[in-house]
Amino acid sequence: MKELNNGIGIWQLLNSSIITDIISSSGFDYTLLDLEHGFFNIDSIQNCVLSSKSSKLKTIVRLPSISYKEIVRVIDTGVNGILFPHIEKKEDLEKIIKKTFLPPIGEKSLSPFVPKYNYGLTTEFDNTNPFLGILVESNIGIKNLPNLLSNRLIDFVYFGAYDLSIEYQIAGDIFDIKILDKLKYLKEIASKNKKKIMAIYRTKEELEILNNIGVDIPIASVDTSHISKKLKSEYDIFKKINKIDS
Predict the structure, then answer these.
(1) Is the separation of the CB atoms in 152 and 105 below 8 Å?
(2) Is the pTM of this model over 0.90?
(3) Distances, alpha carbon 117 to alpha carbons 80, 114, 122, 189, in Å
């Protein structure tokens, strides 16, 4: 039986298989390829998935919408998991299950000649559906968690702290007590239903908070953020050593 293991992940916005390889080489367990805010297309997703194949790194694609038309092609790349955004009610689950799973559960079509099935070399198709995740990022979604997470086909849930912070009019303050209370509630419901949860952090202190709550897969911010902060730090060091005024 397939199982989503605990570990550490990162959001990947940059559509480069080299970035995926760097994430893999750094020891990460998951990279979340972001089709909503990132710079990906089907080709670049495929390249990133292929780059991850020789390592433990699992690839999860965050889709831009529930009605995304390219879902079959994304799954056929061989990606390990799919993350649907803006999930709020059971009707949303019915839609994404139909799109994600092969019959008799869903309505996804099958071609054995794609990367997911080794271009026709794979002959067994049982248990080949990807991990299915939902992004809960609204107060309605939080209130409906018991109904959403009781569905046996959901493997994990991502806690949408940023969108929740906007809804609560504390934009960007994703570790405010109001937000953390919702995350604790999510952990409670997820544990009862044996679902993994993901949540983002930006600092060591925030990671410790997520660990204390029991987040299974903490997400270490975003590739663009790490790169920009490191480069800014190097430039600031250069200015200081060379006594350059801003």
Answers:
(1) no
(2) yes
(3) 12, 6, 5, 35
Instruction: State whether the Cα torsion 95-97-101-102 is positive or negative.
Output: negative
Each residue of 207-229: b (16+ CB within 10 Å) or e?
bebbeebebbbbbbbbbbeeeee
Q: CB-based contacts of 166: which residues, under 8 Å, 6+ apart?
A: none
Closest CA to 223 of 69, 42, 5, 22: 22
Mean of the pLDDT values across residues 6-25?
98
**Are the C-beta atoms of residues 132 and 100 closer than 8 Å to each other?**
yes
Mark residue 230 as left, alpha or beta (left: phi above 0; alpha: psi -120 to 50; beta: remaining).
alpha
Angle at CA 33, nearest 5°, toward 27 and 37? Answer: 130
Token representation of residue 155:
């493997």
Of 218, 190, 217, 200, the residue nearest 4 (C-alpha): 217
What is the average per-residue pLDDT within 218-230?
97
